[in-house]
Amino acid sequence: MAGEASAEAARKSTQEEQHQAPEEEGAEPQFPVHGDALAAAFFDLDNTVMQGAALFHFGRGLYKRKFFETRDLVRFAWQQAWFRMAGIEDPEHMQDARDSALSIVKGHRVAELQSIGEEIYDEYMAERIWPGTRALAQAHLDAGQKVWLVTAAPVEIATVIARRLGLTGALGTVAESVDGVYTGKLVGEPLHGPAKAEAVRALAAAEGLDLSRCAAYSDSHNDIPMLSLVGHPYAINPDSKLRKHARGLDWRLRDYRTGRKAAKVGIPAAAGVGAVAGGTAAAIALHKRRR
């Protein structure tokens, strides 16, 4: 099963790299709960933690390193442009991107792609992290809780991003490898939609977590199954379907694309600072594009 494979891969990665998070208060009101060992936070990646899709940025980096030709880059660029304008995931675009990525990495060593992933993060991803969402994740870390990325992106890329952000680990799509070399196939299905909820449930069971005390964050209605699992669901930069669903269930909302205030109280105070920074950064970027 995709969820079980992702959860197992995430746990193995975390066992290799343990992070000690400082403990300090920074929530209003008292959430995340300081010292609650049965709670954790799960963050979607694309358009929640980072502007755009990680897989597309990764594709740009591979093109720069001559892993594929210009026509493939054009397709990646179109998909990324559509994603940014629409703000939602298109299943056909995402499937095409995954198929392309699998064919591109086939025959390459896992260690090679992990090393390249570190470089690509610095080149294309680091500046696209939403400060507000980063502050939310940090609030959980400061409360002594584990924080996981949960994404359809390859687990190797997701793990790099999680490590660079100081998070606990990542659940992601698992590509098959034999003797450290990619085969061009997946282990199970992509970690998308209901598969994310399955993976979170499996990880929570393995970690001894109480999902009613956990939090989850996402921008997409595709992640409603994951958000519905936890006691503290958050809609971050939500698409129209998720926004409507979240309002109907009285979930907390936060939109860093515009700097709008949260629709519900209870967002960590540090995230408010992040929202201002995120809104400012977006305004500067828009200004530069229009010049």
TrEMBL record:
Keyword Secreted attributed: no
UniProt keywords, alphabetically: Hydrolase, Magnesium, Membrane, Metal-binding, Transmembrane, Transmembrane helix
InterPro entries for the chain: HAD-like_SerB (IPR050582), HAD-like_sf (IPR036412), HAD_hydro_SerB1 (IPR006385), HAD_sf (IPR023214)
SUPFAM superfamilies, alphabetized: HAD-like (SSF56784)
Record-annotated membrane-spanning stretches: 265-286
Molecular function GO terms recorded: hydrolase activity; metal ion binding
Residue numbers spanned by region Disordered: 1-30
Record field: compositional bias (Basic and acidic residues): 9-22
Domain of life (superkingdom): Bacteria
The UniProt record lists the keyword Transmembrane: yes
Pfam families recorded: HAD
Family according to the record: Belongs to the HAD-like hydrolase superfamily. SerB family.
NCBIfam families: HAD-SF-IB (TIGR01488), HAD-SF-IB-hyp1 (TIGR01490)
Name of the molecule in the record: Hydrolase
Organism: Streptomyces griseoruber
